[in-house]
Specification:
The chain is an alpha/beta fold and 232 residues long. The chain contains 6 helices and 9 strands, in the order H-H-E-E-H-E-H-E-H-E-E-H-E-E-E. The protein has helices at residues 16-32, 39-47, 82-90, 107-116, 129-141, 178-183; strands spanning 68-69, 76-77, 97-101, 121-126, 148-151, 164-169, 184-195, 202-210, 213-222.
């Protein structure tokens, strides 16, 4: 997590009411700074308690703009602004079939479930066993049982339920794994951090698939842990 100053672990002291107020304050900040525009995404972020997806030792830091450590190898829950940054760019919406590469804490999965609604589908893949179990428990405890959780190598996607309308990668790669592009429907979008060759720079890139091929658009620079597995 080079580049971020992670606060030290501590015993949590904040009440649910204090965290609710911080959540509402954070959403106002996200709107003010242009990260959050969609009402569906805003409502999802109001409903899903981010603190329920953070380890107890970091619970009081839930709404700080820093990634926080999770169980597993180099696993983190991303900064709060990262989720609307990805989902607004994707245009994630009601009814979408959504594939998430990197389950993390399960927070992004819960948000996506709220956003796509009962007619949508959320599939999330995680390679790390400890991270997978942590997220699975978080989602179950928060009542999110209608998601498909896959323990495996995210670079291969999940062809059983493809094609997907939207795909989100939450780890940096040197290039998009070909199975993911194959599982993206024509007209669909994929967003991912991509490492620039020979540079210590990561670009958040939106890929849009059409009958003519795949078009890429750089959104901004980001900082994410590396993709693991066959395509890492």
């Amino acid at each position: 997590m080079t580049g971020w100053k992670i606060p030290p672990p501590k015993r949590p002291t904040k009440t649910e009411e204090e965290l609710r107020k911080e959540r509402e304050k954070k959403l106002r900040w996200l709107v003010k700074h242009g990260y959050l525009r969609s009402e569906r995404i805003k409502n999802a972020m109001l409903k899903v308690k981010r603190e329920d997806f953070v380890p107890d030792a970091y619970r009081d830091y839930t709404y700080l703009e820093v990634p926080l450590p999770l169980p597993g190898e180099e696993a983190t829950i991303s900064c709060p602004h990262s989720y609307p940054l990805f989902y607004e760019s994707l245009g994630l919406d009601r009814g979408d079939k959504f594939l998430e590469i990197g389950l993390g804490s399960g927070y992004g999965t819960a948000l996506a479930r709220e956003i796509v609604g009962s007619n949508g589908l959320v599939v999330s893949i995680e390679i790390d066993q400890l991270t997978f179990e942590f997220a699975r428990r978080n989602l179950e405890n928060a009542g999110y049982r209608y998601v498909v959780l896959v323990k495996g190598d995210g670079g291969f996607g999940y062809p059983e339920l493809s094609p997907y309308d939207k795909i989100c990668m939450t780890a940096v790669c040197n290039g998009i794994p070909s199975p993911l592009l194959e599982q993206l429907r024509t007209g669909g979008r994929l967003i991912a951090p991509v490492r620039k060759p020979w540079k210590d720079v990561q670009d958040l890139v939106m890929f849009e698939k059409s009958e003519r091929g795949v078009k890429a658009e750089v959104i901004c620079q980001v900082l994410y842990v590396s993709l693991r597995g066959s395509y890492g």
